[in-house]
Design brief:
The protein contains 13 helices and no strands. It is an all-alpha fold and 274 residues long. The longest helix is centred in the last third of the chain and has 22 residues, at 203-224. It is elongated and about 70 Å long. The model has no long low-confidence stretch (mean pLDDT 84).
């Protein structure tokens, strides 16, 4: 079954493809491109904009899982109702402006980025657009409902769970208690950026985290070249294991568990350098 899907008019796709481009910019240390993407996404996808509100509807359907069938059906019905209540002309104009800015600043190749959840986003787009036949629409909605009730749906690793000051304070307290140490300057910077990340869906934090992981990997490489480490087989193996762990972070979901792991690596490197 083939469906028409104009991905440039899929707000969630526009967001996800820019996230991919942001990652590329960080990896290649293209600060100018990174700055443009972060500022552009803040402008178009913050919670008060038309595209930001529409993006939330896509996420409600794409990221929810493990609910009962009644809840899934209600969520789908209410999401469709909210989608069609929005000013479609305003949405279209915002998308047009965003597409134009991307084309001018980065290039049309951005829209060829691989987006892992592309199929799911395309399905939701088809349901929202209401341009399919009755049979097609029923099949599409069934696909989404099946995903909503699935208990182990693999959502995007880049989603930022909500964290408030009390939650983070408890997290830091527990971290200090467990590891019997004070937070270092690098760790404090990481935590500060983490708690401030939620006003823009963590865009700047994601960019910062990629840079910090890259820095930590370089630090590990430098440590491995130290004579006392290179001559110790066990220590060398452990630091290589940490380096591999850092490699896996780029694919991991950003949550408190990941932050705790990064904090522990920061501690390890600090101790090794001392």
């Amino acid at each position: 079954m083939k469906f028409k899907h104009n991905k440039k008019r899929n707000t969630a796709f526009l967001y996800e493809t820019l996230i991919k481009e942001l990652t590329k910019a960080v990896v290649h240390k293209d600060d100018e491109k990174k700055k443009f993407i972060v500022e552009t996404m803040k402008q178009y996808f913050n919670s008060n904009t038309a595209l930001g509100k529409e993006l939330r509807m896509y996420r409600d359907l794409n990221e929810t899982s493990g609910v009962d069938l009644y809840t899934a059906e209600r969520l789908l019905v209410e999401s469709k109702k909210e989608f069609h209540s929005m000013n479609r002309k305003e949405i279209f104009n915002s998308q047009t402006e965003l597409i134009s800015e991307i084309n001018k600043a980065i290039g049309k190749e951005v829209f060829n980025n691989f987006v892992p959840n592309y199929k799911s986003l395309a399905t939701i787009y088809q349901i929202f657009s209401n341009q399919s036949s009755t049979k097609e629409l029923i099949l599409l909605e069934r696909r989404v409902l099946t995903s909503l009730v699935a208990k182990n749906k693999n959502t995007s690793e880049k989603n930022m769970p909500h964290v408030n000051n009390l939650t983070l304070t408890t997290f830091i307290k527990n971290y200090n208690s467990k590891y019997s140490q004070n937070i270092s300057e690098d760790q404090q910077k990481l935590l500060n950026k983490y708690i401030l990340a939620f006003s823009d869906n963590g865009l700047e934090f994601k960019a910062y985290l990629n840079e910090e992981i890259s820095r930590l990997k370089n630090d590990i490489t430098a440590i491995l070249e130290k004579e006392e480490i290179a001559s110790d087989t066990d220590l060398k193996a452990k630091f290589k294991e940490v380096h591999n762990l850092l490699e896996s972070f780029s694919r991991a979901r950003i949550d408190q568990k990941l932050i705790a792991k990064v904090l522990r690596v920061q501690t390890l490197i600090g101790e090794a350098n001392e």
